[in-house]
Amino acid sequence: MKIAFIGGGNMATALIAGLAGQLTGAGSLHVVDPNAEALERLAAQYGVSTANGIDVQVSGADVIVLAVKPQQMREVADQLKARLGNQPLVLSIAAGIRIKDLSRWLGGYTRIVRAMPNTPALIAMGITGMVAESGVDAAQREAADKVMAAVGQTVWLDREELIDPVTAVSGSGPAYVFYFLEAMQQAAREMGLDAEQGRRLALATFTGAAQLAAQTGDPVDVLRQRVTSKGGTTHAAITSMEAAGVKEAIVAAMKAAAARGRELGEELGKA
Ligand SMILES: NC(=O)C1=CN([C@@H]2O[C@H](COP(=O)(O)OP(=O)(O)OC[C@H]3O[C@@H](n4cnc5c(N)ncnc54)[C@H](OP(=O)(O)O)[C@@H]3O)[C@@H](O)[C@H]2O)C=CC1
Ligand SMILES: O=C(O)[C@@H]1CCC=N1
After folding, report:
1. How many DSSP H helices and E strands does the chain contain?
2. What whole-number distance in Å separates Cα of residue 20 and Cα of residue 6?
3. What is an example of a GO molecular function annotated in this UniProt entry (predicted)?
4. ipTM of this model?
5. Is the domain covering 2-163 a CATH 3.30.460.10 domain?
6. DSSP state of 88
7. Exposed/middle/buried for 145, CB within 10 Å: 0-12, 13-18, 19+?
C-alpha cells in the first residue's frame, strides 16, 4: 500500500512513526510539507520519501492522508482536486472539517474517510474514531482501517456527527491526561518529592490505574471506591475535588471541545 501524507506535523509524525515499522515490501510512505527541516527529520528517522509540494507520488498513492490544520484544508483540496485520477482513498484527520465540504472542495469526490486519531499513535497505543462516505467501497474501508489499526485501535461510527464527541474524548484527550499529570507532579514537588520521583510516581499511577480498569473491566466508580477508605486520605482528596467542581469542569471542558469541532466545521465549511 502506498500512503502519501499531506502535512508532516505533529499528528502525521505520530502516524508515520507507527506505520513505518509496519509497511514492508511493496508499501511506502511519502510526505508533503513546506518545511524542509521537518521533512529531513522525517526522512532520516523513518525512511520516508518527501516533497515540498503535491507531486507524482501523491497522484500514485493508494491512500492520501490529509494531515494539515483545518484552516489549511481548503487550499490543499484545491491543489489535490486534479490529482485524484487513480481514485485513491482520501483519509482526512482534520478536526471539524465535514465530509460534505471536503467532497465539494475536491470537485464532488466521494472516496473519503474521516478519522480522528490521537498522538499515542506514536507508540502504537492510539485510538481512532472513523466514518466513511458512501462512495467508499469495502476494500478502501479496509485499507483505511489497516492504516489506523497499524497505530492502535479503531472505532467505526455510523454517523459523522459523532466525530466531534470522539474528538473531545480521545482526539484531544491525551492533553487532559498530560494536564492532570502536570498537576500531580506540581503537587508532588510542592510536598517535597524531587521532580524525578514525582514524575515516576504520577506516571506509574496513571498507567497502572488505566490498565487495572481495562484488565478487570470493573466500572471505574467501583475501582475508585476500593481506593477510598472510610475517613482516610483518598476521601479527603475526592471531597476536595468535588467541592471544587472538578468533575463538572472536565465535563464542561469536553463539551467545549466538541462544540469547537462543530464550530470549525460550520465556519470553514462556508468557504
Ligand atoms: N495533534 C493532534 O493531537 C491531533 C491532530 N489532529 C488533526 O490533524 C491535523 C494536523 O494537526 P497537527 O499535526 O497537530 O498540526 P501541525 O501544524 O503540527 O501540522 C500540519 C503541517 O502541515 C503543514 N502544511 C501547511 N500547509 C500545507 C500544504 N499546503 N501542504 C502540505 N503541508 C502543509 C504545516 O506547515 P506550517 O506549519 O508551515 O503551516 C505543518 O507542518 C489537524 O487538522 C488536526 O485537527 C487530529 C487528531 C489529533
Ligand atoms: O486541538 C485540536 O484541534 C486537534 C484535534 C484533536 C487534537 N488536536
Report:
1. 12, 8
2. 16
3. pyrroline-5-carboxylate reductase activity
4. 0.98
5. no
6. P
7. middle
Nearest alpha carbon, ligand 2 atom 3: 95
Q: Which ligand is nearest to the CA of 128?
A: 1
**Coil, helix or strand for 116?**
strand
pTM here is 0.95
CA–centroid distance, 8 to ligand 1, in Å, is: 7
pLDDT above 70: residue 237 = yes
Which of 167, 176, 178, 254 should be mutated for ligand 2, with most atoms under 8 A from CB?
167
Q: Which ligand is nearest to the CA of 6?
A: 1
The model's pLDDT over 65-92, given as tens digits with 9 standing for 90+, comes to 999 999 999 999 999 999 999 999 999 9
CATH superfamily of 173-261: ProC C-terminal domain-like (1.10.3730.10)
Pocket mutation for ligand 1, best pick of 5, 6, 10, 37 (most atoms within 8 Å of C-beta): 10
